[in-house]
Write a structure and sequence with these properties.
The chain has 355 residues and is an alpha/beta fold. The protein is 35% helix and 24% strand. It has helices spanning 13-24, 37-46, 56-63, 74-86, 101-114, 128-138, 177-193, 297-315, 328-346, and strands at 4-9, 27-33, 51-53, 67-70, 90-93, 118-120, 145-153, 196-204, 216-223, 228-234, 242-249, 253-257, 260-265, 268-272, 352-353. The strands form two sheets. It has a nine-stranded mixed sheet with strand order 14-13-12-11-7-10-9-8-15. It has a six-stranded parallel sheet with strand order 3-2-1-4-5-6, with helices on both faces. Helix 6 (128-138) packs parallel to helix 7 (177-193) and helix 7 (177-193) packs across helix 9 (328-346). It is globular. 48% of the residues are buried.
Amino acid sequence: MEKIKAIVVGTGFGCRIHVPALRAAGFEVAALVGRNEERLQRKAAENAVPEFFTDLGEAIGATGAKLVTIATTPNTHATLAHEAIAQGCHVLCEKPFAFNANEGEALLQAAEQAGVIHMVSHEFRWLPERALFGQAIQEGLIGEPRFLIVDQFLPFCADPNARLPRWWFDKDAGGGWLGASGSHLIDQIRAWLGDFHSLSANLLTVSDRVNVAEDSYSMRFVTKGGVEGSMQQSAGAWGEPATLFRCAGSKGTVWIEAGKVLVANANGTRQLSVPPELELPAPPPAADPSSANRLSHFEIGPFTRLAEALRHAILGSAGGSAVAPPTFRDGLKCMQIMDAMHASAAGGGSLQVLS
């Protein structure tokens, strides 16, 4: 299998997820890039990455890498991606794609003009239950989709003393739970139902914190196809997680329950089976066995499928993905929706119509 050299920018999520997923998909991770040389040296050794650099341009020149993956704070994405694109590298960028839609539009134009492959890390499109949920809608199992609910209560940020990525709470770094997690759900809804027409939203902090970016949000929307929906999520809610993904259509309803996808119609309720093409790969071994328990298959499996789709796109080879890979164009659409949500929240939940 032909090895494509990749550079991973970022030593947190980049090392925990990007590095093992890229290797599982057949890439050679040639170098890490970061700001702290001492941390870089330690992370490179822990993850068996041969080289490390504090300058992306130097790393590309020294390694001859053809792919750059970016796992840094959102306010740094544009600068790093533009540098990689300018040197002819394909780019995989973490979400939220950019700091705002203007940055996202410039990145999309640069990538298209350079003719490089570009993708955004919305890996949860490959979670089998979410992919199967969308497949049920597309295959007409519920008739015409008309009403969607995506709601989650999560305890990640409930404890103010919890050890969490600092950028989640830093507005200047592009933080906030909307970008950290809501961007994934916005992308998922678009993958299921197409583009948004209008929305109203609010951003809030539920946990016992002050003067930080939001840990919760709520949004009502209408898609261009006429589906009414709501998307609400709090990462500051004590207690066991609770999730509701449910879409009602003219002839039935589809929902996710404990990782299973069920459909109800006039004939009753049945569980859908996950076809082989939507199954996840087995998780790869961790380079550092002591950190193996931190390799969540909820993240690593879908990210491996994303990396496989990226590799096929770079090589122009057969064996494409059963799930449509998210590109910079999808990233831009997501940023436009997020910008509209921020504008709506600033206007007390005012209606925003997207072009």
